[in-house]
UniProtKB/TrEMBL annotation:
Superkingdom of this protein's organism: Bacteria
Descriptive protein name: MFS transporter permease
Residue intervals passing through the bilayer: 15-41, 47-69, 81-99, 105-127, 139-163, 169-191, 212-235, 247-267, 279-298, 304-326, 338-359, 365-385
Gene3D superfamilies, per database record: MFS general substrate transporter like domains
Keywords: Cell membrane, Membrane, Sugar transport, Transmembrane, Transmembrane helix, Transport
Transport is among the record's keywords: yes
Pfam families registered for this protein in UniProt: MFS_1
Organism: Xaviernesmea oryzae
Major place of residence: membrane
Length: 397
């Protein structure tokens, strides 16, 4: 990969607009998903168990829609109509949440948000297709697109709570509806009317049957994402209640973590020029285990900052590399591979919150952070199993 190839997407207007579409579509999820537990329990006054009903509904629709969309896109379906369906689902989800009715949240908002998650599959697939047909370096452009998702999740959750504090919880959903309208406008401007992203054709026919390498790669993404979410969900309470740090500590930790994350997402493609993505992911899993144990031992703010920097480093390397790694086992069916990758992250986020609550109730929040090491360890072991699986050898994978 030449320096010219690595920087090409930064001067390509269409490539940048695709990244903007990834950011805006991801912002809808980032504004609503982390807020829903607080909204259901604290604002509407329902029991914590009801969050599980919402999560199951959202998870089911997300898995089904992402899988179906992946199959349809690989088969040559047009991108824009499917993306508009996702946008309609997001708009209806936010509108239903305004009513404050638990049945509407479970029957409309949760499925709508699950459908919204499939939008990432569509836009990432189009981004990869555009990059391939216009000579953009795949690892670098994938990392650039993944960075925009991280930026959305850096900004929108905090913005949602800020809006709720100043204007009321329901304005969070009003803002989400406005974001969806912006999302649709950008999609109309960016994605050509008849755009498709059909399955890549191979010079040699690929064997039919279960693609074990792809499922192993998606499992790696799930376990490391689960470990990250388990740690992240326990951190705020752990720092203040168990470590005895000041109230500003969680926000400061998140800022340091996110800054390091974005830096290493951008550095990952450069590292992939000399080190294979598999080795980068292996290093990320080892660093994750170290980071979790450092964070769980924090007693002072400087120690917290060291842990946050380690956390941002491992997750930045993971986020900047894993999408390309998963796609390397696609056998030309990039949309399907992308759908599995996005579902692995979505499911990890859903399962991690109740797991954190159960562990914290039994043994404390620090133990939840330490046990995240097992998720990273599982990802490390699965990396060895992928060595025997045939990949498309994208930049050394």
């Amino acid at each position: 990969m030449s320096d010219k190839q690595a920087l090409a997407y930064r001067s390509d207007h269409q490539a940048l607009m695709i990244a903007l579409l990834v950011f805006v579509s991801g912002a809808t999820n980032a504004a609503i998903v982390p807020f829903m537990g607080f909204y259901i329990i604290e604002v509407l006054g329902h029991a914590p168990a009801t969050v599980g009903l919402y999560s199951v509904s959202a998870m089911t629709i997300s898995i089904l829609s992402s899988r179906l969309y992946g199959e349809w896109v690989d088969g040559g379906a047009r991108i824009r109509p499917l993306l508009f369906v996702c946008a309609f689902g997001a708009f209806c989800a936010a509108a239903a949440a305004l009513a404050g009715s638990l049945p509407l949240l479970i029957l409309i908002t949760a499925p709508g948000m699950g459908l919204t998650n499939a939008a990432s599959t569509l836009v990432f697939s189009y981004g990869r297709h555009y990059g391939r047909t216009h000579g953009l370096e795949p690892v670098g452009y994938n990392a650039f697109l993944r960075m925009t998702v991280s930026l959305a999740w850096m900004v929108m959750p905090a913005a949602a709570y800020l809006v709720a504090d100043f204007a009321g919880a329901r304005f969070v959903f009003v803002n989400a509806m406005l974001i969806v309208l912006i999302w649709v406008a950008i999609a109309v401007a960016v994605i050509p009317r008849g755009q498709t992203c059909p399955m890549e054709r191979r010079a040699e026919a690929e064997p039919e049957g279960r693609n074990l390498g792809l499922w192993l790669a998606a499992a790696i993404s799930f376990f490391l994402s689960f470990a990250h979410s388990l740690c992240a969900s326990a951190l705020p309470v752990f720092f203040v209640r168990e470590a005895g740090l000041p109230a500003f500590a969680p926000g400061l930790s998140l800022s340091v973590k996110c800054a390091m994350e974005v830096f290493f997402i951008l550095m990952a493609p450069r590292m992939a020029r000399f080190i294979s993505p598999r080795l980068i992911l292996g290093g990320a899993t080892i660093l994750a285990v170290l980071a979790f144990n450092v964070i769980a031992s924090v007693e002072t703010v400087p120690q917290m900052l060291i842990g946050a920097a380690m956390e941002g480093t491992y997750y930045g390397l993971f986020a900047g590399t894993c999408l390309t790694f998963v796609q390397s086992f696609s056998r030309g069916r990039l949309a399907r591979a992308t759908a599995l990758y996005m579902n692995s992250i979505f499911l990890a986020g859903i399962f991690s919150v109740p797991a954190m609550g159960l562990i914290a109730q039994l043994n404390g929040f620090g133990m939840a952070i330490r046990l995240a090491s097992f998720g990273a360890g599982a990802a490390f072991l699965l990396l060895f199993l992928t060595r025997r699986q045939k990949s498309d050898n994208i930049d050394g994978v």
